[in-house]
Design a protein that fits this description.
The chain has helices spanning 13-28, 35-38, 48-57, 86-105, 116-136, 140-160, 173-202, 214-252, 260-297, and strands at 62-65, 68-71, 74-77, 80-83. With 301 residues, it is mainly alpha-helical. The chain has one domain (13-297). The strands form two sheets. Strands 1-2 form a two-stranded antiparallel ribbon. A two-stranded antiparallel sheet has the order 3-4. Helix 5 (116-136) packs across helix 9 (260-297), helix 6 (140-160) packs antiparallel against helix 9 and helix 7 (173-202) packs parallel to helix 9. The radius of gyration is 22 Å and the shape is globular.
Length: 301
C-alpha cells in the first residue's frame, strides 16, 4: 500500500515502480498473438506509404533498426509458446525507463522536490486530488498504486511511438484489452468486497423497478458491465493507432520530392499534437477507470 503524502512532501514513487512489475506482467502476454499474422507480408509492389504504415503500426516477431532485423526470443512454458514481439519489447522498455526515471528522481531525499521529482509529484497530486479521491472517497489511498501505475505505464507506452525506431504498444488492441481487463477485474472484486455477493448482484437491478421489467433490465445491466472495459479498450487503441497512422502516412509521402516539405511539416505538426494526446489518453483511461470502479463500489451514487 502506498500513502501519498501532503503536497510539500515527497511521494514514495519507488513503491509505484515495484507495483509496476506485478501490474505489467499479466498485460504483456495479451500481445504476442498478433505477431504471427504480421510476419511475411512484404509484397513486391507496395508503395512507400504502405510499407511505412506496416513498419510503424503492425506487431512483428523481430525488431528492425537501421535495416537490421533482430529476432526476438520465444519461450515455452508448460507446452505453451510465449513469443516476445516488438510490442511486448516496447512494453518492457516503457517499464524499465519508468523505473529508472523514478529511481533517478528520488535517489536523494529532498524536502522540496525539484526537476524530475517535481514533474512526478505534480502528476501524482493531481491524480490523487482530482481523479481518484472524488470517485473513491476515503479509500482512495488504497487504489493509488494501481492508478499511478496505470497512468505512467500508458503515458510512457504512448510516447514510445514518437521515438525513432520505437513503437506504441497501446496501438495494439491486445495491450489495451489487457489493461481494460484489469480494470474490469478490479470493478467486480471491489464491488463484491464492498457490497457482498448478494448485494453486488442486486446492484444490477435499479431500486423501484417493477418486477416484470427485471428480465429486461438485468441483461442490459450485465451487458453494460462489459461495455465499460470495451469502451476503455477501443478508445485508447483507436486514438493511438489513428494518430500514428497519420504520422506514418505523412512520412511515407517523403519519397515524393514535390510534396516532401509539406509531408515533413505535417508529420512534425501531428507529432507535436500526439505528445498532448499521449497525456490526454492516459488521463482519460485513468479517470474512466476510477469512475467505473467507484460506481461498482457505490452504486447508489
Amino acid at each position: 500500500m502506498i500513502r501519498i503524502p501532503p503536497r510539500r512532501s515527497r511521494p514514495n514513487l519507488l513503491l509505484l515502480a515495484s507495483a509496476l512489475i506485478s501490474y505489467f506482467c499479466p498485460a504483456a502476454f495479451f500481445c504476442p498473438a498478433m505477431a504471427s499474422g504480421t510476419a511475411g507480408h512484404e509484397g513486391g509492389g507496395e508503395s512507400a506509404v504502405v510499407e511505412t504504415l506496416k513498419h510503424d503500426l503492425l506487431d512483428a516477431p523481430d525488431y528492425e533498426i537501421l535495416g537490421f532485423h533482430i529476432p526476438l526470443p520465444e519461450f515455452y512454458i508448460a507446452g505453451y509458446s510465449i513469443r516476445v514481439t516488438k510490442h511486448v519489447l516496447m512494453m518492457f522498455i516503457a517499464a524499465v525507463v519508468l523505473i529508472l526515471l523514478i529511481a533517478t528522481a528520488y535517489r536523494k531525499r529532498q524536502v522540496v522536490p525539484h526537476g524530475l521529482a517535481n514533474f512526478f509529484e505534480v502528476i501524482v497530486v493531481f491524480l490523487r486530488d482530482e481523479v481518484v479521491r472524488p470517485n473513491l472517497g476515503e479509500e482512495s489511498h488504497r487504489f493509488m498504486p494501481y492508478f499511478l501505475t496505470l497512468f505512467f505505464f500508458i503515458l510512457f507506452s504512448n510516447l514510445l511511438g514518437l521515438v525513432p525506431w520505437g513503437a506504441s504498444p497501446t496501438a495494439n488492441i491486445n495491450v489495451t484489452a489487457g489493461l481494460a481487463s484489469l480494470t474490469l477485474l478490479l470493478m467486480i472484486v471491489m464491488g463484491i468486497l464492498r457490497q457482498g455477493p448478494i448485494g453486488y448482484l442486486r446492484s444490477f437491478i435499479p431500486p423501484g423497478v417493477p418486477i416484470f421489467v427485471v428480465p429486461i433490465i438485468l441483461p442490459i445491466e450485465i451487458i453494460g458491465l462489459f461495455v465499460k472495459p470495451f469502451a476503455l479498450t477501443m478508445r485508447l487503441f483507436a486514438n493511438m493507432l489513428g494518430g500514428h497512422a497519420v504520422i506514418a502516412a505523412f512520412l511515407g509521402l517523403i519519397a515524393t520530392p514535390l510534396i516532401a516539405p509539406l509531408s515533413i511539416a505535417g508529420a512534425l505538426a501531428i507529432s507535436l499534437l500526439e505528445i498532448f494526446v499521449a497525456f490526454l489518453q492516459a488521463y482519460i483511461f485513468v479517470i474512466l477507470s476510477a469512475v467505473f470502479i467507484g460506481m461498482s463500489m457505490h452504486p447508489s451514487h
